[in-house]
Amino acid sequence: MKVAVAGCCHGALDKMYETLELLQRRHNVRPDLLLCCGDFQAVRNEADLRCMAVPAKYRHMQTFYRYYSGEKKAPVLTVFIGGNHEASNHLQELPYGGWVAPNIYYLGYAGVVRFRGVRIGGISGIFKSHDYRKGHFECPPYNQQTIRSAYHVRNIEVFKLKQLKRPIDIFMSHDWPRSIYHYGNKKQLLKMKSFFRQEVESNTLGSPAASELLQHLKPTYWFSAHLHVKFAAFMQHETNSKEELPKATKFLALDKCLPHRDFLQIIDVEHDPNAGDSLEYDAEWIAILKATNSLVNVTQNSWNMPENNGLHAKWDYSVTEEAIKEVLEELNHDLKIPCNFTLTAACYDPSKPQKNMEPVHTINPQTTEFCAQFGLTDINDRIQQAKEESSGRGECEEEEEEEMDSTGSAEEPSEYNTDNSGLSSFNPDEIMLDEEGGDEDLSTCSVDPSPDHPPEFSTSFSDIRVMPDSMAVSSDDATDSNNEELEKSGGSRQGEERSPTERSLKRIGADENGNSGVKKIKRRNQAIYAAEDEDK
């Protein structure tokens, strides 16, 4: 079957779907499935905009709300993971995954599903070591710490995924697995993104947690986004025994969703021709969720997952064939995910803007139904209970927030000693996200669909690359030889790195690192918000 893979969507659903329709008209190629690797931005209304970790001036409603309201419907089944620029309050309603709109499915904090016999897994968010060992404690309304920590990967999700034993066909992460750049055309990558050099040479670019999963799961394909550059790699995995067959992963990072950018890829994936066309639960994953349910943590306390170190009575939570069989019997061997999408928030109305709408903590009926069916803990219900208990004891949330160490300095050392979500040096494709960015008044925001990129796609068909084989990645791509894909996108980006705006931003970054008197600046990768001229 044909699978379309997209990088950072940034709410531009109309752009993605109309580009796919253009592909069908011009080349008679119709994807059976669309995968999106994060920064999807499922923004329903103005309150959701407040929960997106970007300065207020970059908060645009975009077009997702039209699919949420039912005004439009996704023309192809879409499965996505979360990134670091999301309506976190919306995605938090679905910690185990669920429908955010008809035909658009979110994988949750971590998840595995099946489509036509193909196993698709993913993990949402980006890696930050100081939050990695905490529970999912955040809930709206967020403060300046939690609006960011809400999308940070947690060790429990990685632990769950590491219990998988059956082969994974496709896996998605937002940030790149650390070290993956050593398996592709590193020279060309650094030619296009010279500011990556320090992290690449020190081997700190990307997520160590994702790298751990890559080595454990050994999926056939691994797709990422986040760094706004297309990059292919081919990783041959080491075998654990002479009997084990060699495995390799074809890695592909996608660019951002903008005109004239290579943000979509079409691949052919082997599938089960006898399987149905519905998205399905994965029985092994459900069994793992049941087995690890006792490990759910909704506090800020840091803790390590069980391991074979003499401190835990149980450390192996992988499931038996019998446990998987029990799940199948519970479902009467019908693994089809129910189409039970439900509106849980008011939808944006362009004729009646509500700029002062505040986010609320919502328990989604899909999650309630899922947890009841499989005997799982509803994380949001547990968070609400914890808040009520805290309030009942007379504890003050504001004091707790002030005491929270957002740097992680009071924690025990993380198992990963580098706090790097993918990019710590200056990146011209980023905007500056200062400490006060999240509390700016929405009255300064545009909530209309962004006018910067009108829906004219006849001139932007170069955004798509159709790959007739399973994937155009060979051992040649793992050398520093000529890489046509990277050359094409690299040629148009040399001017970007030397633009006056970027030189100005670079000076800001230098002041931050060199002068203690300069206000601290936090960076987040979001090239989608760069100036319009930069992308022409």
In short:
With 536 residues, the chain is α/β, with parallel strands linked by helices.
Going by CATH, the homologous superfamily would be Metallo-dependent phosphatases
The portion of residues assigned to helices is 25-40%
Radius of gyration: 22 Å
CATH C-level name: Alpha Beta
Number of domains: 1
Runs in which pLDDT lies below 50 for 5 or more consecutive residues are 396-414, 417-427, 430-536
The CATH architecture designation is: 4-Layer Sandwich
Instruction: Compute the separation of the termini in Å.
Output: 34 Å
The mean pLDDT is 79
Number of strands: 16
- CATH fold naming: Purple Acid Phosphatase, chain A, domain 2
Number of helices: 17
Strand order of the largest sheet: 4-5-3-2-1-12-15
Largest sheet at a glance? 7 strands, mixed
Q: Report the portion of residues in β strands.
A: 5-15%
The gross shape turns out to be globular
Q: Structural class of the secondary structure composition?
A: alpha/beta
How would you characterize this protein structure?
The protein is of the alpha/beta class and 536 residues long. It has a single domain, classed as Purple Acid Phosphatase, chain A, domain 2 (4-Layer Sandwich), CATH 3.60.21.10. It contains 17 helices and 16 strands. The strands form three sheets. It has a seven-stranded mixed β-sheet. Strands 10-11-9-8-7-6-13 form a seven-stranded mixed β-sheet. The chain has a two-stranded antiparallel ribbon with strand order 14-16. α1 links the parallel β1 and β2. The radius of gyration is 22 Å and the shape is globular. The chain starts with a strand and ends in an 11-residue tail after the last strand. The relative contact order is 0.18. The C terminus is likely disordered.
